[in-house]
Amino acid sequence: MLDVEAGGVHNARAVCDAERIRRRARLIGYNGIDARRQRFPSGTSTPASPHVEEGLEYTWDDAARADIRDYNLDDLSI
Description:
The protein is mainly alpha-helical.
């Protein structure tokens, strides 16, 4: 996906640069990891390796809900 032109469904066509991919991937951290950890506290949580490598931690809370408003504008459709 890096450096591929995409979009045109919910947003204007644009090149998927590293920053756009990082912004879109934060949903994995919020919903796929922390929300599951909160729902299943006795389960094992495994953060996505790119998030770990960048030192990113995500917490699913009201601030996260505000942060992801209009996240679909960063869709990576090709």
